[in-house]
Amino acid sequence: MPRATELTAIERDVLCDVARGLSNIQIAGKQFRSPETIRTHMKNIFAKLNARNRAHAVAVAYDTGIFHCRLPHLPLTQPISAGISPSSCRHGTAPTAVNRSAARRPAHGGRQ
């Protein structure tokens, strides 16, 4: 069981920035700390949350209630209404091939 309640305010701030995708160097610059200090905070976070890596620490933070998701979770699959057929869906179609040699030719037909 993670000791989520033992995270300090600074560790929560660091973990929040990790959840936003920032690197240790970016977090250090944002929080006016050294990258080594952020690395130490990350080690403490990993130990307190029993996390293996940054992504796992963020997942544990959401699972234990340290972070709260602002957007509702969408279901993994959604029913397709009866009026839509797979052939009318444009998202699943493959892109058409592009003739790259024609795209490189000048419009006036001369050589470059």
From TrEMBL:
It comes from the Bacteria. Residues 102-112 have a biased composition (Basic residues). Pfam families: GerE. Residues 82-112 are annotated as: Disordered. The keyword Transmembrane helix does not apply. Keywords: DNA-binding, Transcription, Transcription regulation. Residues 1-65 form the HTH luxR-type domain. CDD domains: LuxR_C_like. InterPro entries: Sig_transdc_resp-reg_C-effctor (IPR016032), Tscrpt_reg_LuxR_C (IPR000792), WH-like_DNA-bd_sf (IPR036388). PANTHER family: DNA-BINDING TRANSCRIPTIONAL ACTIVATOR DEVR_DOSR. This is Helix-turn-helix transcriptional regulator. It comes from Amycolatopsis nalaikhensis.
